[in-house]
Design a protein that fits this description.
single chain, 446 residues, alpha+beta, seven-stranded antiparallel β-sheet, 39% helix, 17% strand, elongated, B30.2/SPRY_sf, B30.2/SPRY, Ran-binding protein 10
Length: 446
Amino acid sequence: MNSSHFTRHSSNREDMTNEEEEEESPTELNTINSSGGFLTVSPDKLSLKYAGVGQHGHDVGVAQSNKPAPFKRHAYYFEIYVKDAGVKGRMAIGFTTDNFKTGRHPGWELNTCGYHGEDGLIYLGKRQGEAFGPAYTTGDTVGAGINYDSQEFFFTVNGTLVGTVSKYIKGPLFPTVAVHSQNEEVAVNFGQEKFAFDFKGYEASERSKQQIAIEKTSVPPELNHSLVKNYLLHFGYEETFHAFDLATNSTVPPIYVAQEDGVDVQDTAYALNERKILRQLIGKGEIDAALAKLRDCYPQLVQDDKSEVCFLLHCQTFIELVRIGSLEEAVKYGRVELAKFIGLNVFQDIVEDCFALLVYERPEESNVGYFLEASQREVVADAVNEAILSTNPKHKDRLFSHLETLLRQLMACCLELRLLNDGQGESLSLNRLLENNTCKRIKKTG
């Protein structure tokens, strides 16, 4: 067990959803690392115009973005608007690395990719292009994106998806724009204005494809039922277990069977009644009664007054006093019971956050207000439940339900996949998956 129990639901609530916000995104063109002799950039650094004569392949006017495309997300996208296709319409849009040789078109050099306007060809690190999409010219809006999940580049013209190609380039990639004939001029949109392409709709569609693929996976109902039953027993939800068992028309006796899918259900139901009672007490905020029950049934868990179980329960007692407005009593209790944990590094931050509840006139609206949510009681109940399970002499190391074990394996696999993709793509967010599925069900039944 670990003190992260006490705050895990608040971090799970954020659950990596702020990851995109933490990443910097391109905002303008980089005027330093550009082929400056062959182009002019507008004062706002969002437009470029060719200033050369376009006589050979090394006088291309090229500019990268000021920052690489963010990659801790499902996809990234930007657009250009062709103000003037110039004499020959040799504009290009794509992605390049930080060591890109300016003065050359994106796609001509290794580790670059570019969709060219003159002929509609895609160039993937070599001078010979491949048939890809339509040519584009004055008045067209062209977009380039990276789908980190499928590891593909995708391109659009006037709001319509043109096609995709494999993302063969590793490392940070910079949105890149090129012009290569007299009077060519393009404006760049890094998201400061509405895109012509429905990028949000594209992301939703791609995620929907993933969800459909997942839902097509066949799982025997009895396996699902077994996972749910094990979960309910593991966390001490005895009544819910019996109700679920009855609802699924199980022919297996509810608890006292020798084996269920290779698992000893009696072991899963270890101390079930005590765990059920303790969960109910903590769920109602009756922490003193829960402590008394633990001292009576499992004194070894609370004999050390500085144990984690004692810490969690003392914190919750303090929180319950704040909840009902007994601030003076909370201060007295904190000075006696929580003060003993001050100085212990593993508990220090949580103690300070608990005391911070006293500072706010409306603590429930503060940045530590999650302590006052009903779900915080569940977090404490889960920790106590885990501590009791650890006293099972047969399975001291079986501290997770089968469902939790599967989810941990899923998280490990997703992390490994991300590592194989250089850390690119969205991290797995169980909250986001649950929210998306909930929204889908509401739409279906609405």
